[in-house]
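Dear support,

Our group has been running a series of protein-ligand predictions, and this particular one with adenosine-5'-triphosphate is the one our PI (initials K.S.) wants archived with full inputs and outputs. We had some confusion internally about which version of the output was final, so please treat the block below as the authoritative record. The input we submitted was:
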Amino acid sequence: MTVPLSPSQHDSLAVDDGCSSVRVAVRARPLVEKELVENCSECVSYSECGKQVIIGAERRFTFDHVFGAATSQEDVYTNCVKPLVESCCAGYNATVLAYGQTGSGKTFTMGCGNNVSLLKEDLGILPRAIRQLYECVEERSNQAEFLIKCAYVEIYNEEIKDLLHPDTPSKSISIREDAKGDIVLAGVKEEVVTNFENMIRLLEHGSMFRTTGSTLMNQHSSRSHAIFTIIVEQRSILDSASNEVITAKFHLVDLAGSERVKRTGAVGMRFKESVTINCGLLALGNVISALGDERKRCQHVPYRESKLTRMLQDSLGGNSRTCMIACISTADTNFEETLNTLKYANRARNIRNKPVINRDPQSILLNHLRQEIRALQLELLNSRIRNAGLDLASGPQDLFLTRADTSMEVTAELNTLRLKSRESEHECLKLKDDIQGLQSLVNNLQEEMLILRTERNHYQLKLDEVNSELAALMQEMPRWEGVMDISPMVKDHLLIRMKRAMGETDNEGPGFESSGSSLSSLDRPASSDAATRSERNPSFPTVRETARECSNSWPSSQPKEDHSVALMPEMVYTPFTADAKGANCNSPDRTSGSNRNINQNLRTIRDLEERLALKESDVKFKEETLKEATEDLARDERIFAEKMKEIKTLKKLARDLTNERETLMQKAEKNSAMISQMSVEALAKEDELARLRMSIEILQSGRPDAFNINSACVPGVPVEVAKPKGENCDVHVDRIESPDEVKCNAMDNTSDAVDTAAEAPVEDLSEKLKVKEEEERLLSPRKAFEEQQHFEEDVCTQSRELRRSKQKGNFLTKCLMGL
Ligand SMILES: Nc1ncnc2c1ncn2[C@@H]1O[C@H](COP(=O)(O)OP(=O)(O)OP(=O)(O)O)[C@@H](O)[C@H]1O
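Confirmed final output from the archive:
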């Protein structure tokens, strides 16, 4: 049945209060061939609204999406994953998680490539997501530059394997938390991929290395949890000044299926895999419970319980938009597993994530600093212009700008360093918190270990008591020999126990191999404890001593009736035969009482052994966790120390830069004053040059009326000029070579003289000019010509320089305005 899709299902990424719930979809697979052959019937139905699944008589579960057995891959993808790919392109982390019992269709749903054997409509989530991602990149290529990377790992038997680089040893891969608190896989190489085809090739290549195996439930059963991660980095190109980088991670997870060993028929290696798979899923369940249960929400979330949960830390309760697809089988033979999956998935619906756009803090900082620098540069320029009263378009500004820029750079650098230092301080605080958390974890673990050790000692004591009781009973054994019939099996067993208690190896007893493992745990603590006890009280016989005595006093070999003794732990004493009863009628009650005692004691021993083994494995696990936590703590402390060192260096650098900045600011102040002075001088020189050029033009024109305007420039004619400020100014003109070619040799106060020369009496000047002309006629016209040329060249050079500096000034002004 295909469940109709409602439009509301498309809003699968609804976010409120910055939080977004984990979306959960259920997908039922159709009955497979094996189930059809077995005549299985369907035990699952769906409600009309398309959001409820009903299992059995009336157990209803509500989910965000419910996909019936006939739902196409396309529908599952469109509803569950498409929005996640879109949000990943927008900078949000995303996760798709396929969960379910073995053979329920997780790998089918996720897909692991684009095989030619696959029909297009059967393509799973992975190839579809990769295609959509590249389409999205293509669409946005005019807005941003994209860099896409991928990594593919599997968690097999609690070890992480890099499927894209299978040669990487698992030991070199570890799960770490980076400075931002994101989970990263150190040691896993990410591949940069530029197109759909290449990424599919990598996916298929990695999938080839994934561990699969055949079980009774699924011929191609995945024996590991596989995580394909796509990393999307984008840099906006719309705003060239903004170099903001956004990075999003997309995890596509195909979990291994939960399974019952009885049904999968897993033995040996498969059995071990099965145990680790179930442990990982149990840890995931614990995390889901801790996050989903409102009462537990503030408590510790056991992410560190398994590698799977640690890797999915961001996806469950963290910075990610997550969708879980719970795959179920509708066959009634899988009723219990399906019910469990639905319960598991239902809990996941309560998890609240906090997705945010992953902006690179460095680029944010850089942008912020750039804006600040621009603002400061403008402000500084404005204030300088105001102070110097300069027109930006005139005058050489390069020196001024260089200094100002240097000062700006230093300020910017200083700000960057300050921010970095602040950031490192935050990081240090965070690390401190982490260290405290770890410290309390270690303390808790130590406490737990202490309790466990006490418990172990307690059991050990009990075991010793039982052992000594047993030893006492064994001492009595020879006495019963004559009076009752004890099964040779029992004797054999007791002999083996005694020998083992004495630390001897005895493989003769047919029950040795089966009971060996359980007995060995008894052997070790008994002997060590016996040693300590004999130290305490040498008169008290140890189990070993008593046992040795017994074994010596016993007949060495008893006829062995059969080899059923292999079931030693379950063995009981054989009942008395009628004859034996007759023969031993002197104390039948006492004998049966002792038998009962021995049986009871054996049971107690077995019980204690099991409990002890359990406790020991518990202690071992705790010790490992403690070791890991201690290592983490040491690492964090190392990082913390490094950070502190870095902060110190940064602070010192910041201090140095502040000093340098101060010095530069002072220098810049001085230079700006100098520049202002120079600018004023340059303006005066320009004026002077303009006037000189005008004078030359007038003199070159040789028009007598020109002297009315500027006769003060007549060469060699000392002029008494009018005094604008009540002062006399003399202009000395050397000589006139010809009426048209003159050399002007203006002395001090030239500009004033030129300004006031217009007011000199024209008659006087004409007369003087005539005299001069007479004199000049006598001089060589050639020389005058040469001098004139010389002078013109000088003027041209000066005006060229002036033009160049003007251009420079204009250029710099434009640059400044541009900035
Ligand atoms: N929706 C479906 N439509 C048709 N066939 C399906 C569907 N889902 C699963 N199957 C078939 O069911 C079988 C088991 O599926 P699959 O291998 O994906 O299960 P699994 O959950 O990944 O198992 P495991 O956990 O053991 O790896 C496969 O033969 C697959 O083709």
